[in-house]
Amino acid sequence: MATEREPPVRCGGPTTERARRHLEFTLTVTPDHLMIVADTERRQHELSATWLSDEIGQGAKVYVKGWFDPAEPERHWVAGPDGPRGGRAAIGLGQVELCDFPSVIERCGGTTEGLYRLQHDEVVRAMDEGWSSVAMLQESAGRPMADDAEAAEFAAQESGYDTLIERWPLRVLCQLTTPVENETAIWRSAAVHHARLVDGRWSARSEAGRWWVEGDLDAHVVHRFGGALVGALRRAAEAPDGPHLRIDLSAVSFLDIACARILGLAARSAPPGQELVVHGASRIVHRAVEAVGRPETLVLVDEEEP
Amino acid sequence: MSGLVHLGVLYDDVADLAARCLPEIRAVLDEGGDVRVTVERGGVRELREALGPDADRVTFPAPLDGFSQATPAYLEALRRTLPRDRRTLLVGQYSTRTPASWDSGLAEDAVNLMLADVPLTVLCACERTGPAGHRALTERSHRHLLERGGRRSNAAFRDPDPVSPAPLRPWGPPGTTVRIADAAGLAELRRRVAEAAADVGLVGEAREAAVLAAHEAVLLASGPDADTALPIAGERFAEVRARDGAVVVEVVSERAASSAPAAPGSADWRRAVLPAFCSRLATYDGGDGRRVRVLSCA
Q1: End-to-end Cα separation, chain A, in angstroms
Q2: With an 8 Å Cβ cutoff, are B183 and A256 in contact?
Q3: ipTM over 0.85
Q4: Which residue of A has its CA nearest to B222?
């Protein structure tokens, strides 16, 4: 086994303080498997570069998988001005490895099991080389997500990351860049990644038996919020402390009527015996939820209550 | 205490006028409210007789007193001076002697749009045999008419015309104008409305409701596309006016070329829910787009 290496020296880079502040919420809760949603590629690169800069700075081996010309890795955004601090140097040193999606599919035989083996081997190789930890970044794939079978494969592949995270010092960033994905893929990705999600002005995480939501929830993100909410409900139904989903809205600064409506619709569509229990909602959120018609399965808990 | 009650009174003669108005006047007097009756001499005489000793509790200003100010200034002063802890009842009368400078249409629109939250009852009396324009304005401007048997809804009522200067003229130029092209523009509008609301004394939940109402007004103005696709195509901007404990936001949305006609039920739910968060909501659909005004008060 190789020994741990000294982390590379940080270089100057384009990562903005604004992007760093945006990610702070999630980074402080150990985002081992995080999804970043962005409405433009540029914004996605800005946020992902923050994450990558930290990983490179911490001495992690970084695997990046995405769509690019493998003959010209130097033109990948990670190596360019939108990339992380020291990105180009890290590629040259072998700390960052780029792999294009067609090559990934070829190497794993196009199966979920094969993909898991590939990722497992990458982690083992990185640890053998002496890197202190491993980071994997997966770009927005643009999958058609045409049917339930493909969606199940996708969920299984994402679950493979979680299995590896349990065993190794691995952190994963999945990009969801909305212009390159269809509505179904966006919804399903949000559902699968509900436990660690940063999306523009709102974010979510699962922790201590609750699903914590923060920021502004409005019509612009209602589709993604709905997907994540359903994902959290499904996970809660299977959890040892389930089946109810406890959602904490104490850090929500704004919630519009469309999102209030989604809360009601999700609670209505929950399986029998499952409730959506809302903690920490402000008075105006109470009013919004009541105004759109609160089903019995949507329970609003006053903050004073235990 | 509930807000505005604005009633049209189509009457045959002064006896009929007094008979229709008397129950409303007595109800306000019984509650300890203020009553001000501004009608011509015959109507005053009839109402004094009908009220008996209670007539001393009613103010009867001279008909022309109210016209000494320009219409916007009068309405703005009215909003500022009306008591909020008790109901005020005003009886006014359409008259051929009203000065030409007085803008009755603006006055009716402004009452509907600007005074929705004030504990105020306004009875607008119009003689059935009077000028056709008076009667048409009475029927258009009042959601309810006052009959001898009480109030009845008025099918002829219409929201103020989209080119009506109310409440824009009485409230002066906008404090801020926000162009909204995307989610960031919406967030900027929310921030500006929150600031404007705080500046005029709206705090806590009232301020949050004003912010929510402004946000939803943008989506309502954007039509059915707002339910399925954001950012929405087309230009829109919002003007924010705030004074005297209230915020008025007017959203103007030019119809996008790709905008489809509203499907049945589409966006109706938003329009149905929005009044829970504002004192007054008015929408106008024209060939060039949609306008939405929301008034938010404490």
Answers
A1: 50
A2: no
A3: no
A4: A219
